[in-house]
Design goal:
By secondary structure, this protein is α/β, with parallel strands linked by helices. It contains 9 helices and 9 strands. The protein has one domain: 3-Layer(aba) Sandwich (Rossmann fold), CATH 3.40.50. Strand 7, helix 5 and strand 8 form a beta-alpha-beta unit. This is 3-oxoacyl-[acyl-carrier-protein] reductase.
């Protein structure tokens, strides 16, 4: 399946990796549908894609709401006649440790509140579930072929201070195995499922980090730099165009080597 043949739905498509994916697909001939929670950002990205000659529509979408996601998928069908690729980039972080103690007394002074945990689960995990479900039901009913993606992370292995975020990324990394198996069991052909697990990507948010902290992170990256968002977009495009990718998680980390420095010492 070539990019110029697909209709791609991208949530979180008005910033970060999602914006880059949307623009990359559009620049290579795909018809793109963007969902995001920030209308001003949607308007900007839609205008930029159209100015570059791409075909795109955008819709304000809260991925935690069934009706919003259903409306986004219906917009893809009404605007472009199909759904072939779904990339749920909508996601948030709310970092913090579960138990925070006082340095002097050793007693608990703060805990991660349930809402801090739940909010990340709702957007990253439930939002991805709703997105894939609403796309899949339309693709199956209309016999549209394509690829359903999940966006995992190198931190799916478990990052200190990210029990909420890492939990969601570990979960979505195994969805392709589950869904591909379910599709096989039900005789559903032509819809592949893949997870993409990026390492440290040079989004505006990451590049705006404290430089010393960023340099410490890069000491554990073999290529010694941030991954560019377009490198993630190209990898997603490669999966779309190569039918052998199915039912697994593709890590794009630049060679994250946690622990290598301590072992060397």
């Amino acid at each position: 399946m070539k990019l110029k043949e697909v209709v791609a739905v991208v949530t979180g498509g008005a910033s970060g990796i999602g914006e880059t994916v949307a623009k990359y697909f559009a620049s290579n001939g795909a018809k793109v549908v963007i969902g995001d929670v920030v209308q001003e950002s949607i308007d900007r990205v839609v205008a930029e894609i159209k100015a570059a000659g791409g075909e795109v529509v955008g819709l304000k979408t809260d991925v935690t709401k069934d009706a919003d996601v259903a409306a986004l998928m219906d917009a893809a069908v009404s605007s472009f006649g199909a759904i072939n690729v779904v990339v749920p980039c909508a996601g948030i972080i709310r970092d913090g440790v579960v138990i925070n103690t006082d340095r002097e007394t050793g007693k608990v002074k703060r805990v991660m509140e349930t809402d801090q945990f739940r909010t990340v689960i709702e957007v990253n995990l439930i939002g991805s579930f709703i997105t894939l479900r609403e796309a899949a039901r339309r693709m199956v009913d209309n016999k549209w072929q394509g690829v359903l993606f999940t966006i995992s992370s190198v931190n799916k292995v478990g990052q200190v201070g990210q029990i909420n975020y890492s939990s969601t990324k570990a979960a979505v990394a195994i969805w392709p195995h589950i869904l591909a198996g379910e599709f096989q069991m039900k005789g559903i052909k032509g819809i592949r499922v893949m997870s993409i697990a990026p390492g440290y990507v040079g989004t505006p948010m990451v590049k705006g980090m404290n430089q010393d902290a960023l340099n410490e992170i890069l000491k554990d990256v073999h290529i010694a730099r941030l991954i560019e968002p377009e490198e993630i977009a190209r990898a997603i495009a490669m999966v779309v165009e190569n039918e052998a990718f199915d039912g697994t998680c593709l890590e794009i980390t630049g060679g994250v080597t946690y622990g290598a420095r301590s072992i060397a010492k």
